[in-house]
Amino acid sequence: MTSKHFRTCTLCEAMCGVVIETEGRNVLSIRGDADDPFSRGHICPKAMGLSDLHHDQDRLRTPLRREGGRFVPISWEQAFDEVAANLKRVQKQHGKSAVAVYQGNPSVHNLGTMLMSPQFVRTLRTRNRYSATSVDQLPHMLAAFAMFGHQLLIPIPDIDRTEYMLVLGANPAVSNGSLMTAPGAADRLKAIVKRGGKVVVLDPRRTETAALASEHVFIRPGSDALFLMAVLHTLFSEQLARPGALLPLLSGFERVASLVTDFAPERVAETTDVPADTIRRIAREFASAPRAVCYGRVGVSTQDFGTLCSWLINLINIVTGNLDREGGAMFPQPAIDPLTLGAAFSRGHFAAFKSRVRGLPEFGGELPVATLAEEIDTAGKGQIRALVTSAGNPVLSTPNGARLERALPTLDFMVSIDFYLNETTRHAHIILPPSGPLEHDHYDLAFHVLAVRNTTKYSPATFPRQPDARHDYEIFNELMLRMAEGPLQKLAARARFEVIDRLKPAGIVDLLLRMGNHGSKLNPFKKGLSLRTLKDNPHGIDLGALRPCLAQRLGNQHTKVVLVPAFMRDDLARLARSIGAERPALVLIGRRHLRSNNSWLHNSARLIKGPARCTLQMHPADAAQRDLRQGNAVQVRSKVGAIEVPLEITDALMQGVVSLPHGFGHSRKGTATHVASAHAGASINDVTDESRVDLLSGNASFSGVPVEVSATLLPLADAAGR
Ligand SMILES: Nc1nc2c(c(=O)[nH]1)N[C@H]1C(S)=C(S)[C@@H](COP(=O)(O)OP(=O)(O)OC[C@H]3O[C@@H](n4cnc5c(=O)[nH]c(N)nc54)[C@H](O)[C@@H]3O)O[C@H]1N2
Ligand SMILES: Nc1nc2c(c(=O)[nH]1)N[C@H]1C(S)=C(S)[C@@H](COP(=O)(O)OP(=O)(O)OC[C@H]3O[C@@H](n4cnc5c(=O)[nH]c(N)nc54)[C@H](O)[C@@H]3O)O[C@H]1N2
Ligand code: SF4
Ligand SMILES: [Mo]
Q1: Nearest atom of ligand 3 to the alpha carbon of 597
Q2: What is the rounded CA–CA span in Å between residue 7 and residue 10?
Q3: 313 vs 307: CA distance, rounded Å
Q4: SS3 content of the chain, % helix, strand, coil (to 5)
Q5: Is the pLDDT of residue 517 over 90?
Q6: 265-280, pLDDT tens digit by residue?
Q7: Are 246 and 330 members of one domain?
Q8: pTM of the full predicted structure?
């Protein structure tokens, strides 16, 4: 018997609706759901990854304990007890913060983890909390916190109604949009051009997005903040800064003009490699477009001036009157609204404490992961002695992952919640594998907050979990219960455990949907939603296009938008010093591929097949200068390490810049991802440098790592990894 299931794909931020046809426990097909009011049938090749993950023989299905060099299966009860006993032992000996936690990217794509991991982490009472946030969007959240008063008040491009979109450091044609949940982002960009508008892309690489844009401009990695300052300079010097109706909401508008005086286009042109007239023209076009939006993503957040970039992008939208207006940068009003949930989703805090070794600031209670390895390998009071990883692969995903990799075996204890035995989890003493992505239900708590349209949808589990499997939320709930200490805490933990066990994530979603639901001024149009209404509408419910709402949403915290947060202003001196700074001969940037997802879809034979992807892209002139040829095995060397990869010569890169994808490096011994290991590649994060961070936020600075590239003597077959 075959059956059909409607679901939201959880592999990336786009929230595409899928129709999954199944027979027994097998997936027969996965197609785009044309009736999904948000994605309207769009999917990408990765959607089939849901099926491949479901069927993957390498996916772990029972808890494993490392004994000597081998992993052996153990029961769930034994695994939970041992994990709790070990974490408690370490905390008793070395203090609460001796246990660190790292939560990876898929955490935010998993309802149970979103709901239940915070409870567990709170029980640990450790200061050593880390996540993929600080190798990703931290600067955007810090700017939102400082300017709009809530870390999740991130302005989203109203891509479907804009007439001019200025894109920096993002490749939505491949990534499918990020901090801009927009299924079919490439088509939406093409539509801007088709309706007579303009898309301008600034990127050191002529990307897939640049190819469908109206204009592509090369920009030197890490120099975007200078470009953005010069745009603001033009807006003020040519009297184009007109916030219009926004003005009463703004605090500090009169101070912006004086900040930009030293950043005329002519002064920054050489450092950015963007000609001064191009900067002026873009500023004028932006200001004169009926509706315009400036948008930046990973390329501008993971660089030395990440937080300044996020701030300046917001400023450009604000001073041209494009914030909170149709076709500009807008604020979604999700059916489950973190702004109304108070303590559960805090507005954020910043620099309440610093990391032990390097003094990097916390944000929202988390420390930057660029400092994790040194917090483990630097002896002294407060040193990390145990680590919990969940849904993350920091050995491949964090800067100088090789140093972290050397530090992990020195830990007294490590546990990983993950269904793969990979480059990170192989170091764990115990691995707890959760149910697969189709075996639990889903409601997107994260990405409705970032979506280009207000919609809401609940996806039931496609398959029941196997009786002997555990969901992520069950794992966190069990660990939370066991970590409780003292009679009172134990009593409270037991009560919480039982409530969660009874309600399940779906029950909590129901409560959240009903909360603040009636006549809420934040969200007046979502009346009457409940789990029942969502179950009755399996394709999802359309709640309409984004609406101006900032005044009400700001009102929650601040009364005005803070245009010039003091710590941003103070960082401008550092930015000014970057003008004319000495330029390394070659710098490294990253890239993503449509059929890949960070480090963990490489075990899908269907997605990884085709020409090798982990190649170093280099401009022909840079290759000629070094006497390198297409397909040569080359060594890429930085201050922290070296890797070997095949060379791909292409004029898509600007001169002086080379590019590698991240998430490869699957040749480490002792992993069990067989397809991935056969397409191992090398890890870019063996050469990225953990000491390079955006000084304001501590976010990793992956863009613009100085490297040297030379021919290697190794035959290519050996040059794939380590
Ligand atoms: N297919 C696929 N989709 C994905 C992912 C994936 O791995 N594969 N990952 C998901 C995740 S976790 C995220 S966060 C999003 C990321 O989504 P995006 O940010 O859209 O994706 P990237 O491809 O990393 O785009 C970054 C761009 O910045 C450019 N760049 C690098 N340095 C600089 C610089 O200094 N200045 C400027 N202006 N540009 C620079 C790069 O050339 C690249 O084109 O994608 C998500 N979607
Ligand atoms: N040089 C460089 N490095 C980068 C980037 C870059 O552009 N350049 N991009 C950065 C970005 S944007 C990100 S988001 C990070 C990602 O960094 P990470 O989140 O650390 O790594 P992922 O590769 O996403 O690994 C996800 C892990 O979660 C597991 N997993 C998947 N689904 C689930 C689930 O439902 N439950 C559990 N328990 N586990 C699950 C997978 O098996 C995999 O092991 O990488 C960052 N690293
Ligand atoms: S773009 Fe692809 S991976 Fe992302 S949600 Fe849609 S189908 Fe899934
Ligand atoms: Mo990410």
Answers
A1: 3
A2: 9
A3: 10
A4: 40, 20, 45
A5: no
A6: 999 999 999 999 999 9
A7: yes
A8: 0.97
Element of type H or E holding 350:
strand 350-354
Place of tokens 């900040």: 259
Same domain membership, residue 709 and residue 646? yes
Q: Going by CA atoms, what residue is nearest to atom 34 of ligand 1?
A: 221
Among protein residues, the one whose CA lies closest to atom 17 of ligand 2: 397
Is the Cβ atom of 598 under 6 angstroms away from ligand 2?
yes
Strands of the 26-32 sheet, one edge to the other = 2-8, 17-23, 26-32
Mean pLDDT within 441-450: 97
Range 207-215 average pLDDT: 98
Distance from the alpha carbon of residue 136 to the mean position of ligand 4, in angstroms:
5
Tell me, yes or no, whether 176 and 36 share the same domain: no
Mean pLDDT for all residues in the chain: 95
Q: Are residues 598 and 520 in the same domain?
A: no
For residue 412, the SS3 value is coil
pLDDT tens digits for range 369-428: 999 999 999 999 999 999 999 999 999 999 999 999 999 999 999 999 999 999 999 999
Per-residue burial over 435-467, b if 16 or more Cβ lie within 10 Å, else e, is bbbbbbbbbbbbbbbbbbbbbbbbbebbbebee
Q: Are residues 92 and 164 in the same domain?
A: no
CATH of the domain at 483: 3.40.50.740
pLDDT band with cut points at 50, 70 and 90 for residue 715: low
pLDDT band at residue 720, thresholds of 50, 70 and 90? Answer: very low
Which atom of ligand 2 approaches the CA of 422 most closely? 44
Closest ligand to residue 306's CA: 1
Verify that 700 and 663 share a domain, yes or no: yes
Pairing of strands 64-67, 70-73: antiparallel
Count of the separate structural domains present in the chain: 4
Residue-range definition of the domain harbouring residue 683? 584-720
Q: How confident is the model at residue 721 (pLDDT cuts 50, 70, 90)?
A: very low
CATH code of 664's domain: 2.40.40.20
Q: Is 342 among the domain residues?
A: no
518 is a domain residue:
yes
Query: What residues does ligand 1 touch, defined as CB less than 6 Å away?
Result: 12, 105, 136, 168-172, 174-176, 178, 202-205, 207, 219, 221-222, 224, 297-300, 303, 589-594, 596-598, 703-704
Task: Based on the fold, state whether residues 221 and 150 are members of the same structural domain.
Answer: yes
